[in-house]
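As a warm-up, study this chain.
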Amino acid sequence: MTASNRPLVVTDCDEVLLHMVRHFRDWLDKQHDIELTLEGDPFVQSMRRRGSDAAIEEKDVWKLLGGFFDTQMEGQMPIEGSVEAIAELQREADVVVLTNLVDERNEARRRQLRALGIDVPVYTNQGPKGDALDRIVGEHGASRAVFIDDIAKHHESAAGTVPHVHRLHFCGEPAIAPHVPCALQAGHAHARIDTWNEALPWILETLHGEKR
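Now compare it with the structure written out below.
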């Protein structure tokens, strides 16, 4: 692609633009008789089959997550204010989504977002996001960029790979936000904000160079 040199926003999707874990919890309950405790951490250890105290094996968790994304993405609802915020940001910057899904689900994620009014390029990734973020920033030739994600380890990866990119730790699901490790506290994010009405002004100020 041709570098645009516009400011750049690279945002995660689940729990930033769209609710995911609450829909996953309801689907596990109805379809698999599995209880997911949203207040738990880590994620794998928060799932129990009813009538059993044994944790579900990690390989089975991944299978269930795959089944969810294959069949339930159309039911995911936007985080409050996300659609409007992305529309506002697109007036000021290039906006792309960097989501940890297998590449085969890229088009499904793109369609899902477009149907909700978020028409942006989608990059799929597996594992820490630092290298993918580095490539995206390079492609766009952006002198100022903001990375938004709900998972602290991705901010740690970004901080180590592209330290000049501003990093916002954002978790828009109130049920889990207090329980996720905080990238700001760990020193890997520049801010921690969990609502779009507060995040949007911070992002705009950052893109325009008003924050250092």
